[in-house]
Specification:
By secondary structure, the protein is of the alpha+beta class. Helices cover 47% and strands 13% of the residues. Strands 1-2 form a two-stranded parallel sheet.
Length: 111
C-alpha cells in the first residue's frame, strides 16, 4: 500500500495536493531596444571620430605651366578631391628643381 492509502485506512486526513509552482515568464521585450541603443551609441562614436579626424593640406610642386607634369598633377588633384574630401592638394608652379625645394619649405624652413 501507498502512504496515502495507509493514512486513509488509519483515518487520518489526507493532505491536499500542492498546487503546481508557476514559473514566472520573463519579459524580454526590452532586448531589441537595448541592442538598438547599444548600436546607436557605437555609431555615434564612429561618427564623432570621423568628424574629428585630421584633415590634410598638402603642397605639390608642378613643372612649368602647360608641361606634362603640370597637366598630370592637375588631373590627379581633381580626382583626389572627389574621392578624398579631407585631403586638399595645393598646386605650386615652379620652373626648376631648386625652386621646387624652396617652394615646399614651410615658414620655419622645414619641409
Amino acid at each position: 500500500m501507498t502512504r496515502e492509502a495507509k493514512a486513509t485506512a488509519a483515518g487520518a486526513e489526507t493532505a491536499a495536493p500542492e498546487p503546481p509552482v508557476a514559473v514566472p515568464v520573463r519579459d524580454r521585450s526590452w532586448r531589441p531596444f537595448m541592442i538598438a541603443g547599444a548600436l546607436l551609441i557605437v555609431a555615434a562614436g564612429f561618427a564623432m571620430a570621423h568628424s574629428w579626424s585630421p584633415h590634410a593640406d598638402l603642397r605639390v610642386t608642378t613643372g612649368p605651366p602647360g608641361s606634362t607634369a603640370q597637366r598630370f598633377i592637375a588631373a590627379f588633384v581633381s580626382v583626389s578631391e572627389a574621392q578624398h574630401p579631407r585631403v586638399h592638394l595645393k598646386l605650386v608652379q615652379v620652373d626648376d628643381l631648386a625652386a621646387s625645394g624652396k617652394a615646399l619649405e614651410g615658414p620655419d624652413g622645414v619641409v
